[in-house]
Amino acid sequence: xxxxxxxxxxxxxxxxxxxxxxxxxxxxxxxxxxxxxxGEARLHAAHSTHRPLIFxxxxxxxxxxxxxxxxxxxxxxxxxxxxxxxxxETVKEAxxxxxxxxxxxxxxxxxxxxxxxxxxxxxxxxxxxxxxxxTDPNAVTTVYWxxxxxxxxxxxxxxxxxxxxxxxxxxxxxxxxxxxxxxxxTKKQDVSNVQLxxxxxxxxxxxxxxxxxxxSKSGGTLQWGNQSYNMYCVQQGRSARLKAxxxxxxxxxxxxxxxxxxxxxYFGAFKMSN
Length: 274
Known about the structure:
Helix content: 25-40%
CATH class of the largest domain: Mainly Beta
Distance between the termini: 167 Å
Strand content: 25-35%
Shape: rod-shaped
Radius of gyration: 62 Å
Order of helices and strands: HEEEEEEEEEEE
Structural class: alpha+beta
Low-confidence stretches: none
Largest sheet: 6 strands, antiparallel
Oligomer: single chain
Number of helices: 1
CATH topology of the largest domain: Jelly Rolls
Number of domains: 2
Number of strands: 11
Mean pLDDT: 77
């Protein structure tokens, strides 16, 4: 074999070797490319397979979070409601205690005994024994009262008169009863036409001359027969503005017929305001 033919043969052999290596490299490329595509496909398939699981997990977590939030909200709402009720009950209890305290305070005030001299007041019954048998039937007589058995607070008594110690608006009252029983009379009297009148007078102490002012009068003319018992009562009252040291007293007509029983004949006054 000549050198040219040998060289040509060597070149051909090198060519085929390179071609074979290139083919092997191409097959390796194809194999690697296929493996890569298969790996991506598997990864994509894996992603496709796990996607519902992921979404489900996220959905469950979301629902759990919502449920937890709702539970917390309900708990807080219930707590606030309890706090509100507790506050309301506390306010109601405080108000009830305040009302009860006021009521108890009012009751204590009402039940608390007043001082003896807190309000000017007087109540006296007729003084017994009395004997007006010798008096003139047509005369007007001052009635005298029993100061030892009556009530006198900030009002004095003297000579048939109640004397004020404080000025103010007073209510003045008097009641007198007259009776006649022929069988028990010391002497027979004509009572077929008798006037029985009661007068309440006011004496003003600032006057230079005591001229009593008539506050009120009441009574009537009676025609009593000879029955075993006759009785007639006069009762009256009115308000009057009196000053300190002013006096009030009671006069009656036909005092000889005055009933000596203290339950039927009495006189009094009490202060209503300044």
